[in-house]
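tl;dr need the bound structure. longer version: we got a ligand (magnesium ion) that a collaborator sent over and nobodys looked at where it sits. i said id run it. heres the input, straight from their email, havent touched it
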Amino acid sequence: MAMPLNKTNGVTAFVDSFHQYLPHRNRDICRDYQGKDLIVVGVLKGAFIFMSDLTRAIAEEGMPSVRIDFIRASSYGSSSVSNGAVGVDMCGSSSDSRWAGRHVLLVEDIIDSGNTLCRLAGAVASCGADSVKVVALLDKKGRRQVEFEADYVGFDIPDKFIVGYGLDFDETYRCLPYVAVLRPEAYA
Ligand SMILES: O=P(O)(O)OC[C@H]1O[C@H](OP(=O)(O)OP(=O)(O)O)[C@H](O)[C@@H]1O
Ligand code: HPA
Ligand SMILES: [Mg+2]
C-alpha cells in the first residue's frame, strides 16, 4: 500500500518519512526479482536522483549484479501540465532485442496524467523484455487522463505541483534534496 500524503501529514511529514519508504519497497522488489535477470531503467530526467538511491539500496538489499539503463521522456516543457505529446528518446539502440531475455523495471519520479508511462510501456515492450514493471516514487492519481497503475508506489500525493529530488518546474529546482509543493503563483 502506498502511503497517503495530504494536508494533515503535509510535506514536512513526507520528507521525514521518505527515508522509511526505501527499505520496504526495496525488499518487495528484491523478493519479486530474486534469481531473475533484472535491468533497472531510469526515465530521464526526473528520475535521476530516485534511480540512484533506489539502485544502491537494491544492491545493498542483496542484488549487487543488477544492471542499469536509461530512456528519456518529456512532455511538460515549461508548463505545469502535460501537453499530451510525449517525446521519447531511447538513449541508445532501440533495436527489438535491446532488453531481450531481461526483466525491465522502469523507474519514474512521478505519475500524473499517465501519458508518459502509457507511451513508454509500448516502446519498452517492443525491446524484447521478458517482463516490464514500473516503480514510481510519487503517484498523483487524481490527475489521470489515461489509466495507468504502477507495480510499486512510494507515496500517493494530492493534486499539487511538486519540485525537488529530481522533479522540476521549467528545468529548475531538480537538485533540492527534498520534495516540495510549488506555490501556484510561481507558475500561474
Ligand atoms: O504522467 P505524466 O503526466 O506523463 O507525468 C509524468 C512525467 O512528467 C515528468 O517528466 P517531464 O515531461 O517533465 O520530463 P523531465 O523528466 O525531463 O522533467 C515526470 O518526470 C514524468 O516522467
Ligand atoms: O508535479 C509535478 N512536478 C514536476 N514534474 C511533473 N510532471 C508531472 N507532474 C509533475
Ligand atoms: Mg519535468
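gonna send this back to them w/ a short note. The chain has one domain: 3-181.
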